[in-house]
Amino acid sequence: MIIGLTGSIASGKSTVAKMLKERNLPVVDADQIARLVVKPGTPVLKSIEEVFGPEALKEDGTMDRAAVGKMIFEDSAKREKLNAIIHPAIRKELVAQKEAHLAAGAKTVVLDIPLLFENKLHDYVEKILVVSVTPEVQKDRLMNRNQLSEQEAVTRIDSQLPIAVKEKGADAVIFNNGTIEETERQVADVLKKWNV
Ligand SMILES: CC(C)(COP(=O)(O)OP(=O)(O)OC[C@H]1O[C@@H](n2cnc3c(N)ncnc32)[C@H](O)[C@@H]1O)[C@@H](O)C(=O)NCCC(=O)NCCS
Ligand SMILES: Nc1ncnc2c1ncn2[C@@H]1O[C@H](COP(=O)(O)OP(=O)(O)OP(=O)(O)O)[C@@H](O)[C@H]1O
């Protein structure tokens, strides 16, 4: 079974992914792949430099994630440009990593894809697991984790589809407002229900 793990920014996907890994399920992480495909020397990073200028790079030649984040979350046209450059490479590597796990004998593979709904990647997975939180908790956790102002956090949240829309499209929802233990219990219940 291929499980798509998604949610909204700072809703707790990585937290749930960690729980799934602890249960020995292979997790392919789109955010991690997004870092892989922009390593210095890659065609993707070259295109980013061409489109976003030298301020997209740090002195050591790696992508300046904070600078690019500022540019793209505040400007939807820039965000679409970055997506057009980077998403094809992410999708290719996502499929390759999934296939490698299946070839190695995995019966279940989890694809952690933050933008599964936004990019209409439903066909990549068989079940969709959405990690949800209330908007207030989401904003607080995002501000704390990324050291953002309230306005910056809201801008990032608004760059994605509303979490309520994602919940409606889910096969199961994990509500991550409570404690880690409460989330862990919900993860166990869903896996049991799906015979994983
Ligand atoms: C903009 C970048 C440089 C910011 O880097 P940073 O290290 O601060 O954040 P990180 O990569 O850990 O992403 C954190 C979260 O931001 C959200 N996010 C990232 N990119 C986007 C995007 N293009 N549109 C909407 N939300 C996004 C996701 O929820 C993601 O989980 C980086 O997110 C990036 O390269 N984004 C483009 C690739 C992408 O779309 N990744 C997300 C899904 S594959
Ligand atoms: N149940 C919880 N209780 C308290 N803090 C939590 C809980 N779940 C997650 N967090 C914290 O909230 C923040 C966001 O969680 P996490 O990084 O797992 O979200 P994410 O959905 O993977 O985010 P992103 O979309 O940005 O990659 C982190 O700092 C994490 O430690």
List the helices and strands and how they pair.
Blueprint: E1 2-7, H1 13-22, E2 27-29, H2 30-36, H3 43-52, H4 65-73, H5 76-103, E3 109-112, E4 127-132, H6 135-146, H7 150-158, H8 163-168, E5 172-175, H9 180-193
Parallel strand pairs: 1-3, 1-4, 2-3, 4-5
Helix pairs in contact: 1-9, 3-5, 6-7
Adenosine-5'-triphosphate (ATP) binds at residues 7, 9-15, 31, 114, 141, 145, 176, 179-180, 183.
Task: Give a concise summary.
Catalyzes the phosphorylation of the 3'-hydroxyl group of dephosphocoenzyme A to form coenzyme A. The chain has about 200 residues and is an alpha/beta fold.
3D architecture notes:
- The structure is a single chain.
- The protein is an alpha/beta fold and 196 residues long.
- The protein has 2 domains: 117 residues, P-loop containing nucleotide triphosphate hydrolases (Rossmann fold); 63 residues, no CATH class.
- 54% of the residues lie in helices and 12% in strands.
- The protein has 9 helices and 5 strands, in the order E-H-E-H-H-H-H-E-E-H-H-H-E-H.
- Strands 2-3-1-4-5 form a 5-stranded parallel β-sheet, sandwiched between helices.
- Helix 1 packs across helix 9.
- The protein starts with a strand and ends with a helix.
- The mean pLDDT is 97.
- The site of adenosine-5'-triphosphate (ATP) has 16 residues, from helix 1, helix 6 and helix 9.
